[in-house]
Design a protein that fits this description.
The complex is a heterodimer of chains A (about 110) and B (about 120).
Chain A lengths: L2 E3 L3 E5 L4 E8 L3 E9 L6 E6 L3 E5 L2 E6 L4 E6 L8 E9 L7 E3 L3 E6 L1
Parallel strand pairs in A: 2-11
Antiparallel strand pairs in A: 1-3, 3-8, 4-5, 4-9, 6-7, 7-8, 9-10, 9-11
Chain B lengths: L3 E4 L2 E4 L5 E7 L6 E7 L6 E7 L5 E2 L8 E7 L2 E6 L8 E9 L8 E4 L3 E5 L1
Parallel strand pairs in B: 2-11
Antiparallel strand pairs in B: 1-3, 3-8, 4-5, 4-9, 5-6, 7-8, 9-10, 9-11
Chain lengths: ~110, ~120
């Protein structure tokens, strides 16, 4: 099976930088995804990592360390609209399903 | 990015009735679609994997006779909640896998979700 942990809630200030961590335990790791989800809406894709290192995409960056089972999502220049839940999801081949297993999500509140 | 259309967005029904939710891939063919369920302030939980032209694969604990999945074409998958009860009230989301090239960076694109409320 898979075990994914991320903080339940975080608060940050507009314009600041926030890092959301995700740790996972799985066999047959085949990629880690970050999704953003606003309340009552479907998740939207943010980033994908399958190799170690940092992937940067505008204000969002995602880092992966496969040996440590660790990833983080970095949000820069925070805006009020960034208030949402951020879901870490892992894909693994252990079941052959090629589906994603999601963490419980981190609810980020951006304050003025 | 790829567009996945899900209908209806919300539905209220009486206990004991059945509800059908449609999920369509609008600009690509989705050989595989996934159905997730999400309770308030909880994560997405995979219910089943739907493969075009074959029977769906259900996750442990999900009743296949209660949650009927049909994936008759490459662009449409449906989830029917049969004899719905209040405990079935939830946010249901479909997703389709897009596999460009070798599929190593395949992504999931989600429908907009369906909020089901069973009275």
């Amino acid at each position: 099976g898979q075990n994914i942990d991320q903080p339940t809630e975080m608060t940050a200030t507009e314009g600041a930088i926030v890092q959301i961590n995700c740790t996972y335990q799985t066999s047959g790791f085949n990629g880690l995804f970050w999704y953003q989800q606003h309340a009552g809406e479907a998740p939207t894709f943010l980033s994908y990592n399958v190799l170690d290192g940092l992937e940067e995409k505008g204000r969002f960056s995602s880092f992966l360390s496969r040996s440590k089972g660790y990833s983080y999502l970095l949000l820069k220049e925070l805006q009020m609209k960034d208030s949402a839940s951020y879901l870490c999801a892992v894909r693994a081949w252990d079941t052959g399903r090629r589906a994603l297993t999601f963490g419980s999500g981190t609810r980020l509140q951006v304050q003025p | 990015g790829a567009v996945v259309s899900q209908h209806p967005s919300w539905v209220i029904c009486k206990s004991g009735t059945s509800v059908k939710i449609e999920c369509r891939s609008l600009d690509f063919q989705a050989t595989t679609m996934f159905w997730y369920r999400q309770f308030p302030k909880q994560s997405l939980m995979l219910m089943a994997t739907s493969n075009e032209g074959s029977k769906a694969t259900y996750e442990q604990g999900v009743e296949k006779d209660k949650f009927l999945i049909n994936h008759a074409s490459l662009t449409l998958s449906t989830l029917t909640v049969t004899s719905a009860h209040p405990e079935d009230s939830s946010f249901y989301i479909c997703s389709a896998r897009v596999s460009p090239g070798t599929g190593t960076n395949e992504k999931l694109f989600f429908g907009s979700g369906t909020q089901l409320s069973v009275l």
